[in-house]
Write a structure and sequence with these properties.
CATH architecture of the largest domain: Sandwich
Distance between the termini: 80 Å
CATH topology of the largest domain: Immunoglobulin-like
Number of domains: 2
Largest sheet: 7 strands, antiparallel
Radius of gyration: 28 Å
Number of helices: 2
């Protein structure tokens, strides 16, 4: 190989190297601009909800109103909100957007007294949960069924228009509505929920609730006969 050929080969190598460096620089610049977008596609939370009429979702406990008095028997009803994605869900909310009640003709009609608002997260009793980590779940309070004769001790959970012998479900909303639309007397209902977070799309679910109206002291009997809850 003569000197001319060596110079030409060297020039070709230098030109190729320059192109490689230029392309790499462009790719790095593109990756820097779109890294958040790429990360959002690859790493994303995925929310869903479930409920089982048995512990730990639902269980019998006592509701206290005074340190001097014994607690009132009640059944706590909780939703399990799970993150099946590969990234944590941030600022998670469960919004009760609409309540429907079954009429005599078998159709479900909007319950006029119900005020749409957030449900409260269990234990922390707040409408917004900072995060649910990937592959983990947290409980959200749906409501409670208090032993009928104990309801007058808890005005926020009692509707005087409902016969004292009947059970009711008091939904766990972020505030207590003046119209008492959060208190469900015996009947069949559909509660529409919107479950979302700051970094994922909203999931819409419909919860079907059937309250027979009778109080049962035994947990299994209550969940077998007195109450039915399922997602459609």
């Amino acid at each position: 190989m003569n000197a001319t050929e060596l110079v030409a080969q060297s020039s070709t190598f230098e030109l190729t190297a320059m192109w490689v460096v230029a392309i790499a620089t462009i790719l790095l610049a593109v990756a820097g601009v779109f890294q958040d977008w790429i990360r959002a596609i690859v790493l994303r939370p995925k929310l869903d909800a479930s409920i089982a009429l048995k512990p730990p979702d639902c269980h019998k406990t006592k509701l206290t109103y005074s340190e001097e008095e014994p607690g009132a028997p009640c059944y706590m009803l909780r939703l399990s909100i799970s993150n099946y994605g590969n990234h944590r869900a941030e600022n998670v909310e469960v919004y009760a957007s609409e309540l429907q009640k079954k009429d005599a003709d078998g159709t479900f009609q909007r319950h006029g007294r119900f005020s749409p608002m957030h449900l409260l997260w269990s234990n922390v009793r707040k409408p917004v949960l900072p995060a649910i980590l990937a592959k983990m779940s947290r409980h959200c309070d749906l409501g409670m069924v208090i032993k009928p004769e104990e309801r007058p001790k808890f005005p926020e959970h009692n509707d005087t228009e409902v016969a004292m012998k009947n059970t009711t479900i008091s939904l766990s909303l972020e505030t207590t509505p003046n119209m008492k639309g959060h208190i469900l007397p015996p009947g069949a209902y559909r509660l529409k929920l919107q479950i979302g977070a700051a970094n994922c799309k909203v999931v819409e679910k419909t919860l079907e609730i059937a309250l027979e109206g009778t109080w049962y002291d035994e947990e299994k009997e209550m969940f077998d006969k007195g109450l039915g809850i399922r997602f459609l």
